Amino acid sequence: MRSVEWNAEKGCLQLIDQRVLPAEFRTVCLHTYDEVARAIKDMVVRGAPAIGAAAAFGMALAALRFSGSSREALLRFLEEEAAPTLKAARPTAVNLAWAVDRVLRAARRVQTSADAVRETVLQEAQRIADEDVETNKRMAEYGAALIEDGDVIIHHCNTGALATVDWGTALGVIRMAHEQGKRIHVLVDETRPRLQGARLTAWELEQYGIPYDIITDNAAGYFLSTGQATKVFVGADRVAANGDVANKIGTYMLALAAYDNGVPFYPVVPTSTIDLSLPDGRAIPIEERDPAEVLDIQYRGRPAMPAGASARNPAFDVTPHRLVTAIVTEYGVLYPPFGPALQRVVAQAEKEREARVR
Ligand code: MRU
User: Fold this and answer.
1) Is 270 a pocket residue for ligand 1 (Cβ < 6 Å)?
2) Is the pLDDT assigned to residue 358 strictly greater than 90?
3) Omega before 314 cis (within 30°)?
4) What is the CATH number of the domain that holds 124?
5) 237 is catalytic
6) Which of 72, 82, 280, 295 has a 20 to 30 A CA-CA distance from 105?
């Protein structure tokens, strides 16, 4: 199943609960936009494209549950209640606002009735989900061309089918190269503190039959400096107009070590993750999560840290574009200077979308 899926029979949004994997495969069915916002905040669903699609379905749930019959009142409710609540769930991944705004634009185009708005909003959410899968497959084809037989690839966080609607971004590229018959090995950064690499990426690699080893995040520099890693592939939560890349905390250190050792560093980024309104990465809002995520770990069944210890927990960092070798998008692989290339692909995506609407 998809990690984000509309259940038409039950009229709910079905999500794979990513908090409990790999110990348990559990799904949840959400019936209100508040529940969706909470699921995004608590990381039941996570990964930039997946939270975008989930929020789009959250808008659909808001429209379906709204009891009034006035089109204007429904639009106001979507704009003033549902959209701000969903957008506020997590601040860094721009896909969230991108998807909510896209649904709102579609809703505003409907001139007839509240029921027609409801239908359009659900259709647009479904379109966002379907397009995500198509986009990922396109990126996978372009990105896999960068992978050679024998490559050992460092991957950070989880960017696979779980982090998207299906297939994945950086992990989708790796999966495509594997399916093309290339012999590859993945070094999976465990990704502290929530262990998206060790829990989720390793779980996915098991299903695909791709050989891997989990490494501690702080071992990446060792593998890069000893020639034991040949490429780095990561995802992104937001890319600024100059090519600065926000991604899971630890990506910046990984990019520095890759750069220092002449190892190519490739973010795999759908155009829905590009934010041309921000000139550079300094303007990207960085989510700081509950310190409990850092503190509540155990070592051999006992608390790892002294009682009363305090912690900081930024969830993302920004990699400056000078450390980025190339950015893989659904419109091809972009090389520096990134500014004009990013503008071109975003314009291309908008044109394609407008043609579909007409
Ligand atoms: O905090 P998370 O798990 O939502 O962070 C996810 C990442 O940083 C991913 O690398 C990013 O969203 C791209 S996933 C296709």
Assistant:
1) no
2) no
3) no
4) 1.20.120.420
5) yes
6) 280
